Amino acid sequence: MTSSATVPAAVQAALNTTMRHFVTGVTVLTCGGPAEAEGVTISTLTTIPGDPPMVCVALRQGSRGLRSLLAAEAFVANGLAADHEWLAQHFARRSRPTGLAQLPPRAWAEPSPHGAPRLRGAVSWLECRIERTVAAGDHELVMARVLTGAATACTPLVNFAGVLHAGPSSAPHAANPVNPMHTERKQ
Fold first, then answer.
1. Contact in structure between 112 and 127 (CB atoms under 8 Å)
2. What is the pTM of this model?
3. How deeply is 174 buried, as exposed, middle or buried, from its count of CB atoms within 10 A (0-12, 13-18, 19+)?
């Protein structure tokens, strides 16, 4: 395995540019109570289907977002809609305030079942509880169990080559909440 210290800077830059050419959804992770509500924009969410359903996200070690997630009982992964570019930009800024007052009240939906803040109009949301973290370079991989969630039929916000775009429209489907912790299994 090659460490980043042995990769020439020009090669590393080319690899980083190439990696930005994978299309990813844009997600804001939210957690905390009304006074200390925190959010962070990511494009590294990976779903891990199975039993139990899980997600994995990568956050920079020592970052404000990682510290907030680790301190929270639960967090919400809000899959942003195409008209949420302003939210992606807001939560990507390092100098943003904390608390629900950082956004207009219309930007927030009802909290998740475990009390984490949610963003109104998200394409989908998953409420999660951290199971474990793993150091990976200068990031921390956060693996979390999905507790509940829901999806709507609207156009997602996607990241391609470092630019935000409207993704494909989704086909109509049921937007019923799902709670994997309380669903009955068919025998």
1. yes
2. 0.83
3. exposed
Q: What is the dihedral of CA 173, 50, 157, 66, to 10 degrees?
A: 140
Q: CA 156 to CA 85: how far, in whole Å?
A: 10
> Residue 185's pLDDT band (boundaries 50, 70, 90)?
very low
Give dist(CA 48, CA 145) in Å, integer.
Answer: 9
Per the CB < 8 A criterion, the answer to whether 69 and 56 are in contact is: no
**For residue range 23-79, what is the model confidence (pLDDT) as tens digits?**
778 999 999 999 999 999 998 899 998 999 999 999 999 999 999 999 999 999 999
- Only one residue has tokens 């630019």, namely 163
Cα(126)–Cα(57) distance, integer angstroms = 13
Nearest to 132, CA basis, from 124, 149, 144, 120 = 144
**Facing residues of 163 across strands?**
160
